[in-house]
């Protein structure tokens, strides 16, 4: 059944992306423009997270992956890293009732062992509490780096080969995908980056092979459900060819 949000959106329910990934960038610039500390930008940014999670759930989008903290972000000033960690912890606790109410399953993608103990504990509790929820999956990419993820997958596969549980010839694209943090999930159909930067910054390099990419100049704390709808409308007009020729075009064969 179509949700109210979908009914009024004018979107085509059959052409919704199954998986949306977002590089939430521009919190620091948002704060700088207002002569505020960068942390204020992150605080405001976490409100935008709540509203986009709601929008996705209302529309019936199955997977939302948000880039919250990269492996490279550990090199930021200690005070900013610790403020971000505290915000994440707050988010992981305060969102729990809504995740439960709306049937959203939370997963963390990334090197959880690098997170401070208190953050890791809250993340585990929320993941555990929401693990049976089936309406939507919310992936938080935390201490996430795509190259690290690929290295972890290569190591896991190599170990199985060394133990003779796998033959070299068994290493297919599917097998590699099954060893990534996103194992069992479809690849993102749509990748959004805010703040006008045209780069991937080590995010889902394998999984975004055929994602449709949208860059908006809006800074993340200013990103709204309305702009998200506009991007979805635009996405539905894209012609995804996956290397083939368009079906409606005459071909030689
Ligand atoms: C994105 O905003 C949030 C994180 C990377 C944690 P930034 O903090 O990168 O903001 P800008 O890019 O400096 O404006
Ligand atoms: C990417 O943003 C990481 C997150 C949004 C969490 P960055 O601000 O870290 O990326 P660069 O440094 O501009 O490439
Ligand atoms: Mg940035």
**Cα-based radius of gyration, to the nearest Å:** 19 Å
**Which percent range describes the beta-strand content?**
5-15%
- Text of the CATH class of the domain at 18-143 and 187-236: Alpha Beta
CA(first)-CA(last) distance: 40 Å
Which outline best applies? globular
State the total count of DSSP E strands. Answer: 6
Order of strands across the biggest sheet?
Answer: 3-4-2-1-5-6
Return residue spans where pLDDT drops below 50 for at least 5 consecutive residues: none
Bin the helical content.
40-55%
The SSE string, one letter per element, is HEHHEHHEHEHHEEH
CATH superfamily of the domain at 18-143 and 187-236: Decaprenyl diphosphate synthase-like
**Distinct bound molecules:** 3-methylbut-3-enyl trihydrogen diphosphate, magnesium ion
| CATH hierarchy: architecture of the domain at 18-143 and 187-236 | 3-Layer(aba) Sandwich
Mean pLDDT: 96
Structural write-up:
Strand 3, helix 6 and strand 4 form a beta-alpha-beta unit. The protein is 42% helix and 14% strand. By secondary structure, the chain is of the alpha/beta class. Strands 3-4-2-1-5-6 form a six-stranded parallel beta sheet, sandwiched between helices. It binds 3-methylbut-3-enyl trihydrogen diphosphate (2 copies) and magnesium ion.
Please supply descriptive tags for the structure shown above.
42% helix; alpha/beta; binds 3-methylbut-3-enyl trihydrogen diphosphate; globular; Undecaprenyl pyrophosphate synthetase; 253 residues; 9 helices; six-stranded parallel β-sheet; binds magnesium ion
Summarize the structure.
The chain has 9 helices and 6 strands. By secondary structure, it is of the alpha/beta class.
